[in-house]
Hints:
Layout: E1 3-12, E2 15-24, E3 35-40, E4 52-54, H1 56-64, E5 68-69, H2 71-80, H3 98-127
Parallel strand pairs: 1-5
Antiparallel strand pairs: 1-2, 2-3, 3-4
Amino acid sequence: MAMKIRLSRGGSKKRPHYSIVAADSRMPRDGRFKEKLGTYNPLLPKGDERRVIMDTDRVQYWLSQGAQPTDRIQRFLENAGMVEKKERSNPKKGTPGKAAQERAAARAEKAEAAKAAAEAPADDTASE
Length: 128
C-alpha cells in the first residue's frame, strides 16, 4: 500500500483550513485517511507558530514506514528541521511566457525603428 503524507482540505469557501494526514495514495484528497497528523491554516501570517502544527513523532513514524510526503508537506518538514533541504531546480521559473516574449520583441523592434528614424534626419542636416 503506497502511503502519502498530504493535506486534506476543510473549511468553507474562500476560508481554507487543511489537515495533515497519512493516507493511502489511491484515496481522494478529502477522503479516507489512516491518521490525522496535524493542521495547516494558510490564513495565519507566515511567522505565526499556529500556522503549521504537526505531531512530529507520528510524522517520523509514518516516514519510517515508507510514507512519501507531498511537496508542500516536504517544505513543512524542512522548516521544522525534520528532513534535510532538497535541492530544487526550476529553470523555467524566471523566463517570461510566450506572449511576454513576443511583446518584448515588438517593443525592441519599435524602439530600433524610432532610433533609426531619429538618426536619419540628423544625418541629412549635417551634410548640408
